[in-house]
Write a structure and sequence with these properties.
By secondary structure, this protein is mainly alpha-helical. The chain folds into 2 domains: 67 residues, no CATH class; 79 residues, NusB-like (N-utilizing Substance Protein B Homolog, Chain A), CATH 1.10.940. Helix content is 59%, strand content 6%. A hairpin with a 5-residue loop joins strand 1 and strand 2. The longest helix has 17 residues. It is globular. About 9% of the residues have low confidence.
């Protein structure tokens, strides 16, 4: 993900200065997923006791990103938060001999994000699963990507025509 400190802009006098903000809507789809994952992680850490607006405000102020309330990424993040119980109910039947509470935080959040995207976007499920695997390799527990791949693949086989 591109960070503001990586963005150097030359002024008209030839001096360099740091770019003040990055509009999150200009991120690649992969970086957008990473951004949403970070917001979901922050919300989970706060046990959903604070508003997404508050988390976004703090996150953007600290890291110099701009995410407006009407942004597609904000709307998607809020939808995942609002639908987390429903998404969890899609995950639970896939957990043979495994309790939902034993899932690592990152694994659970990546599963929610991927399932929400499968259910609510036209993005090819192969792409979504691959992106979930890549997120898991970066952020989840060791070998969680294999677990996520298996669960998402099983869900798609059972639920998509």
């Amino acid at each position: 993900m591109v960070r503001p400190e990586d963005q150097i802009v030359e002024t008209s006098s030839g001096e360099s200065k740091e770019e003040l903000e990055i509009d999150v809507d200009t991120l690649s789809k992969r970086d957008g997923r990473i951004f949403v994952f970070h917001l979901l992680y922050a919300m989970d850490a706060c046990e959903y006791q604070v508003s997404l607006e508050s988390v976004v405000d703090n996150f953007c102020r600290e890291f110099k990103y701009c995410l407006k309330k009407d942004s597609p990424l904000f709307v998607e993040t809020q939808a995942i938060i609002d639908e987390r119980d429903t998404l969890d109910n899609h995950i639970k039947p896939l957990l043979d001999n495994w309790r939902f509470e034993r899932l690592g935080v990152c694994t659970r959040l990546i599963m929610r994000l991927a399932l929400w995207e499968i259910l609510h976007t036209a993005t090819d499920t192969i792409v979504i699963i691959n992106e979930a695997i890549e997120l898991a390799k970066c952020f989840a527990e060791t070998d969680a990507y294999k677990f996520i791949n298996g669960l998402l693949d099983e869900w798609v086989k059972k639920n998509k025509n």
